Amino acid sequence: MVTFPGSLDDxxxxxxxRAAGGxxxxxxxxxxxxxxxxxxxxxxxxxxxxxxxxxxxxxFSPVMASVIDGAHNGMxxxxxxxxxxxxxxxxxxxxxxxxxxxxRFVCRDQTLRVENxxxxxxxxxxxxxxxxxxxxxxxxxxxxxxxxxxALEAEGRVVARxxxxxxxxxxxxxxxxxxxxxxxxxxxxxxxxxxxxxxxPGTDGLGFFRSLLGVPA
Length: 217
Ligand SMILES: NC(=O)CC[C@H](N)C(=O)O
Hints:
The chain is an alpha/beta fold.
């Protein structure tokens, strides 16, 4: 997983990878070499202090040129929260994330419905499964033009949707989407904070990391 200046959840993402049975490799924003990893996670946080727009500066980090190349060649990439913002800024995913409609930072446990299990990051879930993971952001409202939203729905690329209330005004309650090939996924809530019943709302988040490893539930 990549650390940008201002990343916050890189170590939790690494811990989630290890908890799922994988090996976590630390990547640095200024180093374009991906160290032969099999997949990349862009973690949550406040890359470059959220200046300009969340993710807008991180998108130009040296490492992102390699991530973009890899993503186009089928490498699995998961962007969590700030990572989702970076993926949209990098045009690996369509649309944008804007300030929450209520203009406040939100931090709570959130129920999601997993809508698409045919991605590299969601195959461990059942279609329609409801999971609870934390959400914590200021700019989490997913927006796109109507044609893009219709295409995402028609192609089954809405990966997860908010249930029990929309925490940020996201259009069509979208919590996460994938690219056409399903190797790139962006998710606003934080599955890496729900991998240990002792500290999280449960272990529902582990499925994202297990999916990648093909570990059966
Ligand atoms: N938890 C996060 O990754 C926060 C993302 C971003 N800094 C925001 O507030 O929207």
